[in-house]
Design brief:
alpha/beta, indole-3-glycerol-phosphate synthase activity
Amino acid sequence: MNATDGEVAPAVQSILDAAAARPGGDDRVTVDARSFPEAVARAERAGRVPVIAEVKPTSPTTEGTRDDDPVELAREMVAGGATALSVLTEPEHFGGSLETLARVREAVDVPVLRKDFLLREDQLDAAESDLVLLIARFVDDLPGLVAAAKARGFQPLVEVHDEAELHEALDADAEIVGVNNRDLAKLEVDLSTFERVASAVPEDADVTLIAESGIATVEDVHRMRAAGADALLIGSAIMAGDVRDRTARFTDAETENQTSNDAAEPTAEDDT
């Protein structure tokens, strides 16, 4: 889908127009990326839910802003068990910046995703990160941009919203795929989106699958994991309070669920 064909919400079109006008980097970057799949595997071995916690000062779909030092927020998220971090770099609508991305990545040792609306290859060269977000719906040459990102050392996270975009991502050799539960045409969230799209992933596909948007409760975590999510990207639900505690609540969700299930198991005494 062309980024300017008008099939998105006005707020999103405004973001795309601004993104198209932003320059790229002057020099090609080369990144020594921290492996996201390895970080996911470490979290799983430790019994934690792999969570990408998002440093998001504001957005068109939330009210108000958060003015805390993003580096301190990032450190607290990692202390809460975050497997990776997502940092908004879109300035006009999300309050993000490339400077914030650089400061956060220097301050933590987990993989960091640059979350922005990247439309052209030269925009990859504006900053270093471990992962870059490429939204299938808005990229004209997805295979070309995926290849360009990989050539620089980035791990591209290709975001999709339906089965057709999923297959576009897989055909473009995407190894990390995020399913956005938010429909960018209407800005509505439906968690069944992930369930539907995840069920369409071929059994032999070697892909790390991420559930994005709308995950607000521990029950949502269980639901997305049951549907096949290898990791979850959580922004507003973490930023809405004490980020360390909220991150820990999501990363510990399966341990707490198992504890609850164990407590519910009848014992010999219960049977009498």
